Fold each of these.
Amino acid sequence: MNCDLLDILLDGVEPCFIAFLFAYRYRAMGSTGYTCIRRTFCSFNILIWLCGSGFLAIGVWLHFAYPGYATLLPDHAVLSADCMFITVGVISFVIAFFGCCGSWFQSRCFLVIYFTLVVLLFLSEFLLGSLAFVFRGGIGRMLTQELKYGIEKHYNVSDRGGFLTPSVASIWDNLQVDLQCCGVSSYEDWYDISAWPGERWVPQSCCRSQYGSMFSEGSGDELANVDCRKAGNPALLWDKSCGQILQMWFVQRLHIVGTVVLVIGFLQLFGLISSMLLFCTVKHKRSSKTYKSYSPTVDTTLNRNGTSATYMDD
């Protein structure tokens, strides 16, 4: 603002001072809001970048430490835990990288790429979720058949693997003991598999804990040792299938799944809005004569009517 000597003499200093105060306050508020959005957006993407790196590291570790999980679904190994972690990690890493670079270097190109990737990710999630809901019956049957095929072809009693690299047999045995279940759909899933062709046997992990592998049946001269695995008596086995237990476990935790979905949607919406605000503001900041600085250090000195003023980013 310019106040000449005549205005000062006629109207006094107060109007000029109030106008200057409002102008300075307006500039400070604008600079502070821009800086707050920029730093929050950058910190948010750094956090996502670190989480993505963690998911990627977990996926790589699972891939080399637990290769047996991939054979649970032999024809759809991409759905295994290691592949899922690696996919989520790579997507998060790439998107967060463009977000960090776009906010830190104030690059409109990186911000547009970030916005485009988030939109594509949101559309992909919506499409996959819709397809999974519509074809949930077929997907469930497909997973059931794949698990049965993995039992039939890859279960090997003699291959127990190691502590860090468990085999398919070790994974299934631990799962059935922990969940107290037998088979994917029923105990008959274990009949006539490659580990015991032509036999109607089940693994020891299907037997109830009170029976174990061998137990005595009868009394007196009729006392005999019975092998629970080969007895063919369903009363000796766990009465529920692992598919039923896992489905019940998932249904009981639907509220957690819904909360996670809402949080992910909110984070994506925040990223979209913040990136667009920065994209629209960067060009204005660079071309404006009022705001020449939006870095943490002193950027420039404004000279107005011979008066020097230094503006710093809040």
Amino acid sequence: MRSAVRSGMRTVFTALLLHYYMAGSACGERMVARQEAWQEARQVELIQVEVPEIVRHGDDVQLRCKWDAPSDKLYSVKWYLNDREFFRYKPEEEPAIMVHALPGVTVDKELSTGEVVVLKSVQLTCTGNYKCEVITEAPNFHTADKMAHMTVIQIPEEKPLIYGTKNDYKIGDTAYVTCVSAESRPPTHLTWYINDQEAPREYLVRINSSRSEQGLTQTRLGLQFKVSRDHFRNGEMNLRCSAKISSLYYKTQQHSVDGQLTYSVPVMESRDISAFSGSRSYVCGGRQQQQAVLVVLAVLLEVVVLTAVLEFPSS
């Protein structure tokens, strides 16, 4: 009897142990599955994309893509410019880096990795949206991407130029000058000053800008006003044009003129004086005729007197 009870208790205890073991294994499997699912989810997390907002034409540029994933789960990293792929990194392939040609885009393969892409001597065509795309390994091939914009600018070295200047002005003269910037991208902002005071808006003459085949803009701005005493300081008038591109470029060009504080009298229309000349010629001609008549009369008078003397008998 006792042996039967003991045998039954052993059987129940063994069954309980087996049940708890199987339940624990299932729970462990579920925990492992959950951990693997969480691991899968974190593989697609792209933390940050670093792209400089503004760069100068000809500079070297670094593009950075930061993600949080184990290296053995990474399938590829791709870079796009305006949705056109130009760089690909696949750690399982040889070579791991592949470059696709795009106009103006030159990748330095030696300095580029999966996290950093180096562009050499960027051109104006490199302006646009840059996207980093990270893809995980099979079978899911989860994808994450982020985008940032970069603008390539070209800053001129030259000062703006002023055209149409004079050496001196009189009160009442009309001054008309034009300021022309060097070619740039983005366009240059021009401002006129008269004796360090910004010119009134009504003095400004808007002139269309010109654009080159390379996408560079040349800006023009005219200045026109009637010269008055208020425009002179100590007999001098200073005209200054400033050219500015954000905080990256600022240059000025100045022209100083001497002022004659006399009024500019309009020139009268020239008149035809040929009639007066003719009248004068007529008068002069009349005088000559009068002198000739007097000479003739004098000769006639002498002839008459000589004849009378010859005809009158002497006493």
Amino acid sequence: MKVDFGPHFEPKVSLCRKMADALEVVELLERAEEVEELAQLVGNVRKRYIRDKDNPMEFYNDIEFKKRFRFDKETVLEIAHLFEDRLTKLNNRGLPVPPIIQLLTALRFYATGNFQLVTADLQGISQSTVSRIVKKISIMIAQLRPHYVKFPSREEGRTNSLHFFQTARFPGVLGAIDGTHVPIMSPGGEYGEVFRNRKTIFTLNCQGIVDQNRKFIDFVTGWPGSTHDNRMFNSSRICAQFERGEHDGILLGDSGYACRPFVLTPLLNPQTESEEAYNVAHKRARNIVERTFGCWKKKFPCLSKKFSLTKLETVTTVIVATVVLHNIAADHGLLEEPLLHEVENEDEGHHPPPQPLGAIARRAIIQQYF
């Protein structure tokens, strides 16, 4: 049955419908505002950048900064400038890492050798990102090696020789050579044991040649810890260059090297005053390489700890990168003299016999100068 409410009821029904429509519109607008606020919040998270107060360049004073990163701020900016065209922002799941922070991340790792400490210091950067940054920056710095670790020209060699002579009265010296060990985790596998040195520690053996300014002029790494220094030198590029007569002058090495015309070693059993004087001068001149290793490892403590890096290729890259940085530090007067116990002075116990021509060259030096 159809009910007729009369003509006066139609406007009231129409008004109710309009009010319902209006309430629905208001509700939709409120939901839209909530969605917009949520989208803005999410957008802000995605666009978040490391702010200025999170930048160690601004947060730390000069003394604190140098203590943490081993360089002053000016030198860090100079280092960053060397490869800034290749330093793009690394994305850490929505958190872009500025190039300067990437460099500081690597420097902090070299100063600690601990990914966890780096992550704690540089808040907002995950440990996995720190690991990627250290590898990336180390490769870039190591690629600068030809510019910062190079053998002297003939003119520079004469200057080196003069400095060595003024210091120790030893003639014709281009540099001092020695080996040093960097501890690593056991590589494992079939050949893992060859990395165990005579102290039963897993290491990489490194060969350095330094000048009178405590700068590396040649460097070799990657050899297992069980390798003798003499074998490492015999296989090196610099040895081949000396054998071809490409360098004027001599190197000073300890008794772990075979005495040869271009590598003079001390006498194991000096018999005369001249031979004693030769040994004293030799030790005084060669001591620079032991002090340089001490400076290098003091500046970059990661070299004295077992690397938490698992790939040997990455470990050797980090080692070379620190050598480059050491020479940059030397150029800027940022090397610290090592303490007595930090200076390496160990005999590896392996004394190869002198080569005949080496013994003749050593005897001639003794007769002429001592």
